[in-house]
Task: inverse folding
């Protein structure tokens, strides 16, 4: 209901009495459409009433007495809104659109539904954990379009204090999500781009010959032989853990000794064919004989799907074999080190490991020192006409 009042002043606004029910509006005489809305509960707010395309609109400017909303401040804001109306804009519709704009929670939900199923199972588990435990608690209420570089950087620095590597993974996930937000028309730039990542020194952990011997003994004595066989196949093929655990029998040609990994299971998303050694073929043949022709997974889970978790088995095996500081992924490095020690070239090693980029295999270049030294000594022996010289390592210091 509209009420007639003398010229509005802050003093008069304080004296305005609430109606018995609903609300009333006391209009200003200086700015057209500006008024004070008084509810039956006694709440007083500045509003601007106007028409846009013949439709009546009400824009709430702010509650009187809060956040410095005085009559003078309301008149100033109403004047700004009137100038927007003169340009053809609709402030109330813009505010409504902003309220309906997608939040980071909406972005995460769509990311999980549409993008995550395209990734590997291990990636899905990692991304879900990062989103649930780190990204959503910090940003779920923020509008996607309003997230700033500072917001992402603040989360990265906060996570860095407790988990530097995990902080880097979180930024990578956010960067992917905001790239998709650009594709979906939710914003025009990526606020996660340019975040300075924490340094992650590359690991070069390889099992020694003695460690491999002790591990072989521990595998034979381990109570969970399925987990032991997973690790045996990792050692014999240099494959990634996810590739081995999710392997199905239709990927293997035991007659020709070939494992064809489908693109859906490889990191490079491309099919990868590798030859199987005689011990690997024997292991798989024994497993297939026990599993039967109708089996799907080489390493089936207890209830459904394939075997997922062996980290506790690996910890127990490392303790039994007296191996310190080794991850399951280091079995892949150890496989590469044995190839390099046998004198195989980096391109061959890369092909067996399924590397798509030569620089990825370059991390194993130093392992070629021993076969290269042996080769050059042989040349020296031929040219010198005598026996190859014995190489004596110099003690440091």
Result:
């Amino acid at each position: 209901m509209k009420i007639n009042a003398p010229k509005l002043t802050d003093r008069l606004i304080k004296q305005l009495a609430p109606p018995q029910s609903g609300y009333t509006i006391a209009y200003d005489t200086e700015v057209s459409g500006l008024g004070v809305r008084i509810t039956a509960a006694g709440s007083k707010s500045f509003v601007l009433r106007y028409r846009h395309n013949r439709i009546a609109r009400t824009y709430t400017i702010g509650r009187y007495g809060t956040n410095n909303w005085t009559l003078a401040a309301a008149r100033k804001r109403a004047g700004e809104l009137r100038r927007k109306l003169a340009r053809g804009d609709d402030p109330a519709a813009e505010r409504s659109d902003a309220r309906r704009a997608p939040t980071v929670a909406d972005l995460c939900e769509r990311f999980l539904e549409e993008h995550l199923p395209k990734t590997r199972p291990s990636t899905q588990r990692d991304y879900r954990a990062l989103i649930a435990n780190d990204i959503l608690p910090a940003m779920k209420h923020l509008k996607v379009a309003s997230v700033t570089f500072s917001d992402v950087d603040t989360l990265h620095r906060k996570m860095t204090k407790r988990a530097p590597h995990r902080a880097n993974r979180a930024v990578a996930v956010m960067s992917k999500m905001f790239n998709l937000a650009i594709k979906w028309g939710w914003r025009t730039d990526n606020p996660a781009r340019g975040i300075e990542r924490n340094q992650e020194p590359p690991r070069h952990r390889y099992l020694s010959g003695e460690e491999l011997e002790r591990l072989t003994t521990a595998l034979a004595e381990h109570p969970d032989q399925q987990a032991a066989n997973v690790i045996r196949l990792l050692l014999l093929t240099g494959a990634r853990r996810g590739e081995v655990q999710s392997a199905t029998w239709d990927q293997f040609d035991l007659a020709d000794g070939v494992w064809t990994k489908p693109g859906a299971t490889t990191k490079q998303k491309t099919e990868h064919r590798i030859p199987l050694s005689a011990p690997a073929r024997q292991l798989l043949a024994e497993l297939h004989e026990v599993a039967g022709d109708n089996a799907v997974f080489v390493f089936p889970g207890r209830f459904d799907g394939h075997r997922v978790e062996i980290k506790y088995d690996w910890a127990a095996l490392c303790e039994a074999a007296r191996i310190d500081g080794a991850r399951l992924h280091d079995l892949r490095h150890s496989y590469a080190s044995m190839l390099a020690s046998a004198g195989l070239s980096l391109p061959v090693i890369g092909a067996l490991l399924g590397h798509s980029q030569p620089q990825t295999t370059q991390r194993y270049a130093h392992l070629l020192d021993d076969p290269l030294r042996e080769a050059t000594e042989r040349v020296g022996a031929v040219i010198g006409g005598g026996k190859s010289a014995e190489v004596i390592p110099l003690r440091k210091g």
Notes: The beta strands are 2-3, 23-27, 34-39, 44-52, 55-63, 252-253, 258-261, 272-275. The mean pLDDT is 85. The chain has three domains: 2-99, 104-183, 209-372.
